[in-house]
Design goal:
Chain lengths: 138, 138
Amino acid sequence: MNHPKTPRVSLGQRKTRQRDEISEVIRSAQGPLTVQEIYERTQQSVPGLGIATVYRTLNLLQEAEQIQTVILPTGETRYEMSGLGHHHHFHCRSCNEVYDLDDCPVTVQTGAAVGEGFVVETHELTLYGLCPECIEAA
Amino acid sequence: MNHPKTPRVSLGQRKTRQRDEISEVIRSAQGPLTVQEIYERTQQSVPGLGIATVYRTLNLLQEAEQIQTVILPTGETRYEMSGLGHHHHFHCRSCNEVYDLDDCPVTVQTGAAVGEGFVVETHELTLYGLCPECIEAA
DNA sequence: CTAAATGCAAAATCTTTGCAGCCTC
DNA sequence: GAGGCTGCAAAGATTTTGCATTTAG
């Protein structure tokens, strides 16, 4: 019996500086970030990192359910780590910063709010206003 | 004194079939429509109407505050007539149809939900689930 | 070494804009 | 008629993809 070269069936992904840094930037943020923010922040530790790599990595992390997309009612797309549980966001209209909310102020009276026959499974909420820093600065 | 030709200062916009139809399509919808939906529906009464005209008219109507943009948490941009008052939307995850809600199930406890120092001025809510037709079809 | 990951640039989307001809007013 | 409006096509903006090269394992 001969020794067939073990066919390396490596399905796993590789660990790279780029991916590590992109993950880290998202993980250490206090709220969801835009692609541009992620791109700019990763430049500091991994100069030359391409925007395509950011997009590719974001899609990967999303499929791996390590991060999730947050699309604000303004149309702005942002990314944050998943596993934060049910929560919503506060969007400061002055500095544009987005904060995570701990509480959910929504109580959905299933039929009432919509009309008979609708089944509400989930909801998305975004609050707008001014954050403490912008109020102070005003 | 001579008679200078009265300079026609017509700042107003003109009434055209295209604009009429785009307005009408939005006004007669039961919920916010996508650009494609508006485009397709107008083709029926005004064949040849270009997509650029749809975009231009949507921007016009928006500046005139006759319609407003609705961006769903999926990233889908839709348009609906304004003057509907404070309301939210129900998005059917099966047929993708969007319905207007009459009731607002959100009671924001200003400080509580966010933390001290935040001032909540407004909010956006989208409910997800199944509409009556899709439940029936299931 | 081998194949996955990267960076660059080209391609694919979606939306806006320039321009010649058309149509309101 | 004059100037706004339209349709077409080109230009932007954003995200994805192809490919040669680099790099992790």
